[in-house]
Amino acid sequence: MDFGLGQKEETLREEVRQFAEKEIPDGWIVNFLDEESRDEDWAFSLSISKKLAERGWLVMGWPEKYGGRGASYIEQMVFAMEAAFWGIPGLSMGVSGTGWIGPSLMLYGSEQQRLKYLPMIASGGPDGIWCTGYSEPNAGSDFANIQTRAVRDGDEYIVNGQKVWTSCAHRARWCWLAVKTDPSAPRPQDGISLMIVDMKSPGVTVNPLLNYTGEHIFNEVFFDNVRVPVSDLVGEENRGWYQLMKSLAYERHSFGGQSYGTGKRILNGLAKYVTETKRNGRSMSRDPIIRHRLAENAIELETLKMFAYEIAWKLNNGVVPVYESSRNKSFADHVLEQLALAGTEILGSVAQAEQHCKLARLRGLIQRQYLMFPGTAIAAGTDEIEKNIIGKFKLGLPRSY
Amino acid sequence: MNFNYTEQQVMLRTMARDFLVKECPKSMTRELEKDKKGYGVDTWRRVAELGWIGLVLPEQYGGSGAGFMDLVILMEEIGRNILPGPFFSTVALAALPIMEYGSDEQKARYLPPIARGEKIWTLALNEVCADSSCRGIKTAARLYDGRYTLNGEKIFVPYAGAADFMLVVARVKRGRLLEKGLTLFIVDMKKPGIDVDVIPTITGEVQCRVKFTGVDLSAGDVLGIAGAADNAIGRMLDKAGLLKCAEVSGACQSVLDITSDYARDRHQFGKPIGAFQIIQHRLVDMLMDVEGLHYLVCQAAWLMSTGADCNGQLAMAKVKANEVYQRVALSGVKIHGAIGFSREHDIGLYYRRVMASKFFPRDTDYYIEKVARGIGL
Q1: With an 8 Å Cβ cutoff, is A8 touching chain B?
Q2: Is A345 a catalytic residue?
Q3: For chain B, what percent of residues have pLDDT higher than 70?
Q4: Whole-angstrom Cα distance, residue B166 to residue B164?
Q5: Which domains does chain A have, with CATH numbers?
Q6: Could you give the ipTM of this predicted complex?
Q7: What is the pLDDT of residues B140-184, one digit of tens each?
Q8: Angle, helix B230-265 to helix B68-81, in steps of 10 degrees
Q9: Beta-carbon neighbour count of residue A336 at 10 Å?
Q10: Radius of gyration from C-alpha coordinates of chain A
Q11: Could you please report the per-residue DSSP string of A266-334?
Q12: 3-state secondary structure of A252
């Protein structure tokens, strides 16, 4: 066994640090989801995407012919950790693009689709921005229950229906859309297909849904007789569910590393804060309860690091993760929750001050995290759904839903 | 980076697992809980024949010269199945420190019989008012005319009733700093002036009270440097503590396996209880605990075997081990329901044994404080 990083990874860490120092303004505390809300944040995030693409970092794991540089999973993990630690935005081209749409196209898209869409994502330009149309009013965790219908009409599909909680739809050029192509299939999973929809198509309507902080991250999206060329069906008709299952493990592999970076940023911030701050005439870092809280969080964070290492190492060695991505997502959400809550206890009453308020500490990092962690914990699969997956596929327990 | 064991390590693990399942049934473990010596002579002999006791000892002393990581893997298997007896006390609490701090003569004299399984060892450290920081140690060795006289009383000495020798931490000087002035002595249990009683425990592991009354020792019985054993004690407890974490990691894996098997088999309301999400999610939480602990132990062991500073990671592994074992064993009992609370079921063995590992070498809070220092507080 050997859990060390190589020279290549150490150099990458240093390069990312230097990049962040140069490109990211002091006090930039925007999380990866809320970069989509305000126009100026979005513009800045996209400008960073472009620079990441130029550095060969945006899609470093992809093959060269699609705009990547074939970096190992270990390098990708180290990059995810460092980029999150330094708060670098614009990493995912609107949540979906670099994370799962690219990898899914490489797994079961046509070569024509790959050559058309992957370089757009890889270049970091606005044409590489995607949203993902999975959830519907009656299909959240029960994804197989989607009702959005696609009916074949010659060389096209005609799509009708509604998606909801669609992050980034208001910024996206394309939608990665799950539709029902065979409503009469005996098992609902057997009637689902995936397709690519041009968000500029007639009949696509995007309505903002504000989150509880008033930010515009997600949307509802209506499809009213939207015509989609058959060439934009991804993979096989009615095999969408199985395609998704196949790519799931690849899609979620970077969550652990990214959350580790975010968590490390918060932990280091809090450790520095309590060391530099006096309360009632005494350094907060000498308070045994505070020491205890931060130490407990450091241990869970270290555990998350090992989980992130493990999945990267497995992928690097050609092992297809089965439950590990779900474990990392669930555990990462737990760690970020605990850190945010510990942060609020440490800050005390100033934890309620708005991010830009003079009284806010750590530039509002804790407040941001407090507000954002429930959202990130729900997005891409709730904790309960992840645990169902782990229970079934790792522990061999009966399907429970 | 490499998460794989070597081929030999996989073989060692498989061999250990098979042997322990076959030769150490839980019925025997329960029987031995009533035994004053607490181990099976036959099993001990076979464990020695398999080369486990001398696994990491150098070949010149009858060992196999394996690495520390191999011992960690073996300890995980020992914890998984539970091997009652003085393996840990002999190897982790005596053989390793003798290997590290013994003179050539001491090594040549004491290590080969250990490797052959002929001599059982233990460590006498804690006292009523002294934890493993050793600051409160009152057991004293008075030097007079080139010989030491040992007086004092030790508690929670594992397997002292079975031991042929023990290492004893005693004070030879009293100065301003309480952790200074300590010496590690090698004590032959046959010497006059040693009394051993078994302390009744809830764990089933044999723990003893050992009283020394005027025990006569020579300068040749000193392990390492007389009067300056604090660093050696610290280092040996670090290593032993990590091996204890490995044992706990194996025990936790076993609790998870036993409990998820049960959740698949046991039917209520017409289906396996593992089909209920409340049970399933509890098992998943156990899994995340178990895998996390395993990796923290592996990381600390890897660092230790490279000789790098591993204080922070070791402390993290120890806190994790304490917390995870407690949580996982408790969940194991609860998921089993009433049968988990019964004498006849194995799960309770693990639950009781949490208390045997938790405070060795020191309590959770001590290690939490170490972690806090490690993150710059």
Answers
A1: no
A2: no
A3: 100
A4: 7
A5: 7-91 (no CATH), 130-238 (2.40.110.10), 252-393 (1.20.140.10)
A6: 0.96
A7: 999 999 999 999 999 999 999 999 999 999 999 988 888 899 999
A8: 40
A9: 24
A10: 21
A11: HHHHHHHHHHH-EETTEEGGG-HHHHHHHHHHHHHHHHHHHHHHHHHHHHHTTPPPSSHHHHHHHHHHH
A12: coil
| CATH class of this structure's domain B231-374 | mainly alpha
Tokens standing for B136? 């409160």
Fold of B122-227: Butyryl-CoA Dehydrogenase, subunit A; domain 2 (2.40.110)
Distance from CA of A375 to the nearest CA of B (A): 21
Closest-CA residue to A194 (of A296, A314, A113): A113
Average pLDDT rounded to a whole number, residues A232-245? 95
User: What's the pTM value of the predicted model, to 2 decimals?
Assistant: 0.96
Whether pLDDT at A344 is above 90: yes
Residue B315 tokens read as: 């402390």
DSSP code, position B299: H
- pLDDT tens column, B92-117: 999 999 999 999 999 999 999 999 99
d(CA A259, CA A4): 20
Nearest to A271 among B272, B285, B377 (CB): B377
Q: Nearest CA to CA, how far is A235 from chain B (Å)?
A: 33
Whether the per-residue pLDDT at B240 is higher than 80: the answer is: yes
Position A245 confidence tier, pLDDT thresholds 50, 70, 90: confident
Interface of A with B in 252-271 (CB under 8 A): 267, 271
A100 DSSP 8-state letter? I
**Quick one: how far is CA A288 from the chain centroid?**
36
Enumerate residues 6+ apart whose C-beta is below 8 A from B116: B48, B53, B54, B62
DSSP 3-state of B166 = strand
Q: For chain B, what percentages of helix, strand and coil (3-state, to nearest 5) are there?
A: 55, 15, 30
Domain coordinates of chain B in residue numbers? 7-119, 122-227, 231-374
Dihedral sign of CA atoms B11, B16, B17, B21 in order: positive
Q: Which CATH number fits domain B7-119: 1.10.540.10, 1.25.40.10, 1.10.10.10, 3.40.50.300?
A: 1.10.540.10
Chain B residues lying within 8 Å of A303, measured CB to CB: 292, 295-296, 320
Give whole-number Cα distances, A364 to A35, A270, A346, A372, in Å: 15, 12, 13, 12
H/E run at residue B89: helix B87-90
**What mean pLDDT is predicted for residues A182-208?**
97
